[in-house]
Write a structure and sequence with these properties.
- The chain has about 675 residues and is α/β, with parallel strands linked by helices.
- Helix content is about 50%, strand content about 20%.
- The chain has helices spanning about 5-55, 55-60, 75-85, 120-125, 180-235, 245-265, 275-285, 285-305, 330-345, 370-385, 400-415, 455-465, 470-490, 505, 510-525, 545-555, 595-615, 625-630, 650-655, and strands spanning about 90-100, 105, 130-140, 145-160, 165-175, 265-275, 310-315, 315-325, 345-350, 350-355, 355-365, 395, 425-430, 440-450, 455, 500, 530-535, 560-565, 580-585, 615-620, 640.
- The strands form four sheets. It has an eight-stranded mixed beta barrel, surrounded by five helices.
- β9 (about 345-350) and β10 form a beta hairpin.
- α7 (about 275-285) packs antiparallel against α8, α8 (about 285-305) crosses α9 (about 330-345) and α10 packs across α11.
- It is rod-shaped and about 150 Å long.
Length: about 675
């Protein structure tokens, strides 16, 4: 603020302070003049009381201590004496009261016999101290007349007997001070108007400058308030989605639990996580990932009730507080509606994503009473949903805490597993659909965990992906598979081709092509013996980097296949953009192919398109003769499944390779 603005503001405030000071002085003046007027009238009334005492008291003094002999007072005589005493004075009414407060005499006869014992001024007079008060009366019964709109001072004066200081009663003398009071107020008003006009003139001169200064200051203050509000909003809201954030969630849940304790109702906590979001984010970039989160937020906001509260906890995790008027079944119904709403494909820049969520739920007070534990329990239930296959919901059970603890232990053990050489590869043969000859094998990762035995990948691969250990493990798998091919070749066996699963995160590493080349060169094998199975999500990424990387791998002689085709996010039209050799139809379409017309239609569509594009098809999960006989008649060049062989150790593959044709059912 400039010096001029400060000066103007100071002068304006000075004028206002001057007005306040003058107003205060005028009020003080009014108080002082009123007090002086009261004191003046009190002295005058006291003098009149002496006259009244001399004239009247001898006639009624003997009755001051009585309460039942009012008829013995000669009121007419007393009236005449009172009138003579107060004639040509401001006194308008006189009362005489005994020590008990009873009115023995009043110039207004209707008040005789009333009690004034509760009057504070009466008690002051009985104590020997005169007391006066000013009041405004709309109607006032005066001596021989009735007055209207008058300022009256009532003075209570002690009555003392002539020969002693004993107080026998009280005079109450009323004085009309209307003229004096109004004159005083008029003088006060004239002074006030004169001073106010002077100050107002100064104020008007400075008003325009002051208002301009205030407008500048107000604008600055408004900006500061807006900035503070923005900071508060940013502190309590997620910048990407606009949803309340984790801080806000903790506060609102704590408030909800406090209300629930007071009013005895339940509160539900839902913990949501978008399935495979990291893979989408890594494959398509953060811009597409952010847009996916915004669109997912919009869907969630539309499906929950108005009374429910949606929060983003960070990353791809969301929470919902379900408060009041529900049963656990209602929470389950809400979870089902969320799952259904999220199943609809989401389009981003021409790409279609099939997004699912895993949901965990905990209920207050059944599952716990604290904010932290309810959230922890809901999160544990969410992880259980993921373990059960994703795209579903689970209510919390006490056993989940044990599972969560086991997961933490497993995470720690996995970090040491690579260095401790605890991973092994098993191999499952792939056969020619017509001849049942072995045409290759898929390398499948197993974890030989000490004191736990052999653990299947479904239990630990998601943890490797979450903890980003999948890149290191993937490199170990690739190098180990290449060395195993070398061993088989040295034994005089021909494994034809060994396929290795590659995660999307691993494929996106800049050094991945060099890694593949290094593994092949170190093993000393032809590149054609290695096939890389890529995730289906890569089909949607037609960026120059992805296509160029796949072409570079093809130039090395590497075979490429798409694993679990039909379950992910792909559009069949993208197949023509990628240089791939095989499509592996997911086992979920094979298990009921002999009885489910939809599965048949899907397999027919895939095989027909693959034939037109010159891509060979591999059917996974073949477990029965009926499936084998059905698929061998279709356009499936290769088959894989328990019907031919379970995944086995490398030594058993060597035995199988001695007899290339694999008998069905082994």
């Amino acid at each position: 603020m400039t010096l001029m603005l400060k000066t103007n503001r100071f002068l304006l405030i000075s004028v206002l302070v001057g007005l306040v000071v003058v107003s205060s002085l005028l009020l003080l003046y009014r108080s002082m003049t009123t007090r002086a007027l009261i004191e003046q009238e009190e002295r005058a009334n006291t003098n009149i009381s002496y006259i009244l005492a001399n004239m009247i008291l001898p006639r009624v003094e003997n009755l001051l201590d009585q309460t039942e002999s009012l008829d013995k007072i000669d009121f007419e005589l007393v009236d005449r004496l009172v009138y003579q005493a107060v004639m040509n004075t401001s006194v308008t009414k006189v009362k005489i009261m005994n020590r008990s407060g009873m009115v023995l005499y009043s110039s207004d006869p209707f008040q005789v016999g009333e009690s004034r014992y509760t009057n504070e001024s009466f008690h002051s007079a009985i104590g020997g101290v005169p007391a006066s008060s000013l009041s405004v009366r709309e109607r006032f019964k005066a001596i021989h007349s009735e007055l209207r709109d008058r300022h009256i001072i009532a003075t209570h004066i002690p009555i003392r007997s002539e020969n002693s200081q004993r107080i026998n009663g009280v005079f109450e003398i009323y004085s009309d001070v209307t003229h004096l009071f109004r004159t005083s107020m008029l003088i006060q008003l004239q002074i006030g108007i004169a001073v106010a006009l002077c100050l107002l003139l100064i104020y008007l001169v400075l008003f325009k400058m002051a208002r301009r200064a205030d407008s500048v200051v107000n604008a600055q203050n408004a900006e500061r308030l807006a900035a503070a509000e923005r900071e508060r909003y940013q502190a309590y809201h997620d910048q990407l989605t606009g949803l309340p954030n984790r801080i806000s969630f903790v506060e609102r849940l704590d408030e909800a639990l406090n209300r629930a304790r007071r009013e005895d109702f339940m509160v539900g906590v839902m913990y949501l996580d978008i399935d495979r979001f990291k893979m989408i984010n890594d494959s398509f970039g953060h811009d597409e990932g952010d847009e996916l989160l915004r669109l997912a937020t919009r869907r969630l906001s539309h499906v929950i009730r108005e009374s429910d509260l949606l929060f983003r906890m960070g990353g791809d995790e969301f929470t919902v507080i379900v408060e009041r008027g529900f049963l656990p079944g209602d929470v389950a119904h809400l979870a089902q509606r969320i799952l259904q709403a999220m199943r609809e494909p989401i389009e981003i820049k021409g790409h279609f994503f099939m997004v699912t969520v895993s949901i965990g739920m905990s209920i207050y007070p059944k599952d716990h009473a604290s904010v932290e534990q309810l959230v922890k329990n809901a999160e544990a239930a969410m992880y259980r949903s993921k373990q059960k296959g994703r795209n579903q919901y689970c209510f919390y059970t006490p056993e989940m805490n044990t599972q969560a603890s086991e997961r933490l232990v497993m995470e720690s053990a996995l970090q040491q597993a690579i260095g401790n050489d605890e991973f092994v590869l098993h191999y499952q043969p792939r056969v020619d659909s017509q001849t049942s000859d072995i045409v290759g094998a898929e390398a499948l990762l197993r974890w030989d965990r000490p004191e736990h035995g052999m653990i299947l990948p479904g239990e630990f691969i998601p943890i490797l992906e979450d903890r980003e250990l999948i890149v290191d493990v993937g490199e170990w798998v690739l190098r180990t598979a290449a060395r195993q091919v070398r061993e088989w070749l040295d034994m005089g066996l021909d494994p034809k081709r060994v396929s290795v699963n590659v995660s999307s995160r691993q494929f996106r590493k800049r050094n991945f092509i060099n890694l593949v080349k290094s593994a092949i060169e170190e093993a000393g094998i032809p590149a054609g013996y290695i096939e890389l199975e890529l995730t289906e999500s890569l089909l949607l990424d037609n960026s120059s980097h992805a296509i160029e990387a796949m072409r570079s791998l093809k130039s090395l002689g590497i075979k490429l296949s798409i694993d679990d085709f039909g379950t992910g996010y792909s559009s069949l039209n993208y197949l023509k953009l990628l240089p791939i050799d095989y499509l592996k139809i997911d086992r979920s379409f094979i298990s009921d192919i002999t009885s489910n017309a939809r599965d048949v239609a899907i397999v027919n569509t895939i095989t027909t398109l693959a034939e037109e594009l010159g891509i060979e098809v591999v059917a996974e999960g073949v477990e029965t003769r009926g499936q084998w006989e059905f698929l061998r008649g279709k356009y499936c060049q290769e088959l894989q499944g328990y019907f031919f062989s379970r995944p086995v150790e490398a030594s058993e593959i060597a035995q199988l390779l001695h007899r290339p044709r694999l008998a069905s059912g082994q």
